[in-house]
Fold this sequence. Notes:
Largest sheet: 10 strands, mixed
Order of helices and strands: EHEEHEHEHHEEHEHEHEHEE
CATH architecture of the largest domain: 3-Layer(aba) Sandwich
CATH topology of the largest domain: Rossmann fold
Strand order of the largest sheet: 4-2-1-5-6-11-10-7-8-9
CATH superfamily of the largest domain: HUPs
CATH class of the largest domain: Alpha Beta
Structural class: alpha/beta
Strand content: 15-25%
Distance between the termini: 62 Å
Radius of gyration: 21 Å
Helix content: 25-40%
Number of strands: 12
Number of domains: 2
Amino acid sequence: MLQPVRRILAAVKDPAAPLLPAVTxxxxxxxxxxxxxxxxxxxxxAVYVDMLGTGVxxxxxxxAEERSDYLQRLERIAARARLHAPCVTVAAEWDFPxxxxxxxxxxxxxxxxxxxxxxPGRHRAQSLMRLADWELLRLCPIPVxxxxxxxxxxxxxxxxAVDPGQAAGKPAVLDEQILRLAAxxxxxxxxxxxxxHAYDARGSAEPNAASAQLGLESLVARAxxxxxxxxxxxGAVHEELDQLACRLPADILVAGSVSRxxxxxxxxxxxxxWLLRHLACDLLIVKPxxxxxxxxLGRAGVRHVTVEPLG
Length: 311
């Protein structure tokens, strides 16, 4: 069962950045949901240690000073956020890699929603798999909102991308989760809700279309969605969703993802991967209820790198 949004974690990559759209939108959501907000930064930089010996006490002091500096920066950010959402806290921890540190913090604080800024630009799939935003989508068990647009929300258009046919083995309950969360966002932000089902029409078109239409109607029967907000799309799923998002235009696309292990890991979703790379609007990814966390719960701490003396 999808929980109401009561705790939000906003992950900040660079507290000194002039624009922090993830924090801005997380603050909007905290205000709209009446939720608690934590602004978090994972300090994952390597600490270089001279073999000739920086003492343990001195290292601890330097690490504490660095953490304190980040906390002060986060507090300045939080001070602005508190003008709109009064319950705002900050945290900074030495931990790596950053995407695992963020997932750990989300689980530790029992967050219901993670908001993070998406890396700008397009990347080839090989490098994309190593990016923190992609790993967050793959590993985080709670909903993840990846912010791609700087502009704050104003009565946003929200599209729930569903799959009543359960392609690629996605559980049926995932569509219900997607619809519920999309409706929560739409109600809280006073936006418009659309539901889209894109199916592969390259086979026998008429039976596919009829089956897809029945599946979509059955799914939205209990949801408060106007007929004009239901979209049946025949074609390549990722391209159809992208084109719909551009036509409306959409502010948030809500989709589901099922993470796999082993050789299937790279197939976590061709659709999710494509949307992450190409979609212009923000992307909200939902996992099924039985999704198992695979991130170690213990912090990795500081990443020490020993530097050998020259000569």
